[in-house]
Every structure is written in structure tokens, then in C-alpha cells.
Amino acid sequence: MPAYYGGRSAIGRTLSEDEKSNMPKITKELVFRIFSYLKPYRLRLLLVFLAIVISAILGVMPKLLVARMIDDGLIGKDLAVLAKLVLISLLVLLLSNVIQVLETYFNTWIAQHIAYDMKNQMYEHLQQMPHSFFTSNRQGDIITRMTSDISGVQSVISNTMTSIFSNVCTVVVTAAALFAENWLLAIIGLCLVPLLSIPTIKVGKRRWKLAEKTQEQTDKINQILNETLSVSGQQLTKLYTHEEQDLKKYVATNREWMRFVIKERMAGMWFWRAMNMLTGMGPLVIYMLGGIMMIKFGITSVSVGGIGAIVSLLSGLYRPIDQLFSVQVDIVRSMALFVRVFEYYDMPVDIQSPPDAITPGSAQGEVEFKNVHFAYNEEKEILKGVNFTLRPGKTVALVGTSGAGKSTISGLIPRLYDVTDGQVMFDGVDVRKLDLKFLRSNIAIVTQESYLFNASVRENLLFAKPDATDEQLISACRDANIHDFIMTLPDGYDTQVGNRGFKLSGGEKQRVSIARAILKNPSLLILDEATSSLDSISEYAIQQALVPLLSGRTSLVIAHRLSTIMAADEIMVLKDGVIAERGTHSELLKQNGTYKVLYDTQFRAELMQNI
Questions:
Q1: What is the Cβ-side half-sphere exposure of residue 100, based on CA atoms within 13 angstroms?
Q2: What is the DSSP string of 229-254?
Q3: What is the pLDDT of residues 418-459, one digit of tens each?
């Protein structure tokens, strides 16, 4: 019969209020979609189910064999029969363990391969998602879907699904064995199990609610620790002499946590003790009824070994019935994981190459904006009819106040976003009609925030051109004025730069990024405030390197600094979503417009600092 170890029974596991409110709708389509991932492995899955059935049958055989050992071997005083039954039991035990190992192997193999397939599918899908997806969704949530959720799905395959089937098989086989031994005692015994199990649901719900409150206090404690014991938090606490207030807050929260933990641990303790007594009495009831049937009524179908077998079989029924009582919780949580993963799978890929994509043989890098409108959301339009042409081999500078939409323009050319109206043309073809790989392979963008992978300098550079030679790497780095610095590093080009390049200064990272763009040798080069992270000396060196780089190459330069745009063939001023002014530096100064204001407020001050 079941035993309750300190109230740790699976009975009483319930859904949280949040899980209830977000309970997924289980439809035929959802179930079929889930099983579609099992289809390629259906033969191995069939072997798993077959192994579970055989394992369930073998699981009850030792109990039945023990009954024969007692009746025929011990009470019958037949040593040969006893030895034979012991040998059979050993063989059954060996076979059962071998089958369980095989079942575990195939089960794990299937689960791992399904997780492998789903992760590959998710990664490929995420790669195709538009840039707006990554700017509007939290990175932590994206990583969670990719890792924890799919790992949870793997657990569903390897545990939940097979566990349900295994428990059902165990209950059916054990019940059949019970009735084969004695139908009357079997009915009595089977009636006792749910009567002992069902009442624990109420206590389980109470413990669950207390566990939720305990977790809330744990979260609060963790937040206090993260905020007050971090480097910045401790500095702020010391500067504002806030130690006493923080301590009071921590002590109060810790006290609440302790109170809920005690309640959780003690919840239903007397109930569990009472249940332990009842479960201990269960075998006694079976023994008493069996004894009455044998002794008082002389029923010969009941034997000492048979009674022992029934008690043993009933004790093996508790765990599977216990888990089947909470099967709804397992199913709902499993379905929720699949739904979360499928939510990402079902997100449309808005930006991709059309079926009849155009792939020209070469690119000149000419860009034309035709009445371009763009909005990140319906509430605010960023671009309101932008028109300009960037001719091959020319350099155009784009200036304007922060938030005017300069970076948006640079993002529309390689289709990080698509226009809401109008056209962006690349070499006379709408970018939406071009092959996306061709378009982006002919464009290089150096942004304000340079990003380096946690790899060597060489690997970061080769990201632009995997087949580049050492000579090409060195040439690009010389042009970016970073080669001499790289040679001072411990391992030169093989030096690891750390996560996001943290081992390098901002200016050094930026120059590596510029070298990476140079190595790509694009038809169109976009510098999106690429020198903003550099000091004056580094910027001057970069400017000298950019002069030959920009010469004869189609380039769009977005910058606040005067030194970056002075050499441009044309300067455009973006204001209120349109190109408000255009011309050379001297021409724009004479217009006394927005550019003149920008020059007076930003550029002139910068020039004065450099004098």
C-alpha cells in the first residue's frame, strides 16, 4: 500500500493561477502537429512502447512468483520447486533490467533527436526573422524559447508521454494480476487506493499556494541582493548612507520568507501522519480478510502466498495511480511548452527573397529613394516622403538631429526593414525584388556600436570574408590603422577579444569593425556614425584611411562630426521626415537653415575643442 514520505506524494499537484489563466487550448490540429515530430522516429517509438508493455508484465511476475515460492516451495516443503522459482525470478529480474535499459536508450535517443530537429528549425527560422523582431523582443525571451522551452519539450517526449503510457500499462497489468489471484480481495484492495489518494489533493493545493508565496519572497530577496550587493548598488548605498534602510528591508523580507517556509513545511503534517497510519493499516485489512476467507470459510482459492502477492501488487499500484491523478497538470504544462515554441515557428518571415528574385552579375552601388515613407508603428511616421539619389562612386553625407531617422534610412537599403510606402532602388531595381543575399553581400555597414564576437581578431575579420588571405587581412587592418596595435597583442591576430570585444577599447573595436567592412570590399559602404567612439587622434588616423577608401566608392556617411562629412560630394539634412536641405558644406552654410544651426551648435564647438 502507498506510503506518504513527509507529504511528498505527487497527488495534489495542481496548476498555478497563472497556468490556469493561460491554459492552452488543446485542439486536434495541435496534437497532430506535436506528433508530426514523432513521425520520423515512429519505429523506434513503437519499440519504446513495446518495451514498456513487456516491462510492466515482467514487473508483476516476481510478486506472483513469490506467492508460488511461499505456497509451493516453503509451505509445500519442495526444495526443487523453490530453486526453480528462484531461478526463474532471477532471469525475469535480469530480463526486466535489460529491457528497461533498452527502453531508456531508445526513449532518450528519440527525445534528443526531436530536440535537435526543433533547435535547428528554430535557429533557421530566427535567422530569417526581420531586424524589427530582435529590436522589439527581449533577448532573454528569445534565448529561453531556443533553449529552456525546447529542452522542456524534450523532457515531455522522454518523460511525460512515456510516463503516462507506462503508468497506464502498469495499472492495467497489475489489476489483471490482482484479479487473477483473487477477484474479491482485488476489488477491496483497488477500492482502498483511491480512497487513500484523493484526500491528499486538498492538502496538495494548500502546499502549492504556500510554495508560490515562498517563491515570491525568494524573488524579492534575490532582487534586494542583486540591487544592493552589486558594485554599482553598493557604491550608491555607501554614497547615500542607505545601509540601515536596506538592512531593514532585507530583514523584513527574509522574515516573511521564513514564515512561509515554516507554513509550507508543516502544512498538512498531521494529515500525512494520519494517512501513513491508514496506508499501514491497508495490508492489515487484506491480511485479515484473507485470513477470514481461509480460516473461517475455508476458501481454498486463497493462500498465504496469494495474500502476500496481493499486498505486494497493491503497494506497486500507488505510484502509477498517484501520477495518473496529476496527469492533467503534466499535459497542460507540456502543451504550454509546445505552444510557446510553435508561437515562434508561426511568426511570418516578412523580409525574404521573392520567388523570382533578381540576381545581377555585378553591383555599382547606386541608391535611389523614391517618395519613401516608413513607420516603426502606426502611431508615429519616421520618414514622410524621402527622395534622393546616391550615384555610383559618390559620397553623400546625411546629418540631422538625434531621432530624425538617419539610421532608419541606412537600415532600409539592405532591407533590415521594408518601406511602408514608396521604393528603395539599388542599381535601378527595387530592393524587394532583388535576391536578399546578393543585396546584403554588396553592402557593408559600420555602426556606432561596433559588435565583435567572443573569438580571435582573425575570426572576427574573417566573418566578412571567410576565404581572405593573411595579406588581405593585414591590408584591411592597415587601411583601418589598427594593424600596428594588433601586432602588440599577446597572440597578434589570434588574440581573443572577449565577450563583445571587452578586451579592446571602444576605439580599437571600432577600427576592427572598419577593417572588417574594408575586407568585405562592398559596392556600397555605409558609415553610421562610425567614428563617434574614437578619440581625436584615432579619428584623425581613421579619416586619413577613409579618404582613399571612400574615393571612387559609393558611400553613405551618417555623422554628427564635421570632420567626417566635410569631404562628401553632397550633404543632405534630414528634418521632420524629409530631406530639408542638400548641397556642399559651403553651400549649406550660405542657406542659413538647419545645417547652419547644427554647425553653430555642434560642429563649431567641436572645432574649438580641437584647436
A1: 13
A2: SSHHHHHHHHHTT-HHHHHHHHHHHH
A3: 999 999 999 999 999 999 999 999 998 888 777 888 889 999
Amino acid at 132: S
Q: What pairing do the DSSP bridges indicate for beta strands 429-430 and 421-426?
A: antiparallel
Reported pTM: 0.72
Strand ranges of the sheet holding 524-528, from the earlier edge strand across to the other edge: 443-446, 524-528, 554-558, 395-399, 570-575, 578-583
Same fold, 183-301 and 392-610: no
Provide the residue ranges of all domains of the chain, joining segments of one domain with +. Answer: 20-182+324-347, 183-301, 392-610
Q: Does domain 392-610 have CATH number 3.40.50.300?
A: yes
For the chain, what is the mean pLDDT? 82
Q: b or e along 341-360 (b: 16 or more beta carbons within 10 Å of the residue's beta carbon)?
A: beebeeeeeebebeeeeeee
H helices of 157-230, in order, are: 162-181, 183-197, 200-228
Please tell me what DSSP assigns to residue 69.
I
pLDDT at residue number 442: 92
CATH 1.10.510.10 given to domain 20-182+324-347: no
**35 or 9: which carries more pLDDT confidence?**
35
Distance, CA of 406 to CA of 557 (rounded, Å): 10
Superfamily of domain 183-301: ABC transporter type 1, transmembrane domain (1.20.1560.10)
Q: What is the dihedral of CA 17, 22, 28, 29, to 10 degrees?
A: -160
Q: Which three cell numbers stand for residue 509?
A: 573595436
Determine the pLDDT at residue 5.
Answer: 35
Report d(CA 443, CA 435) in Å as an integer: 13
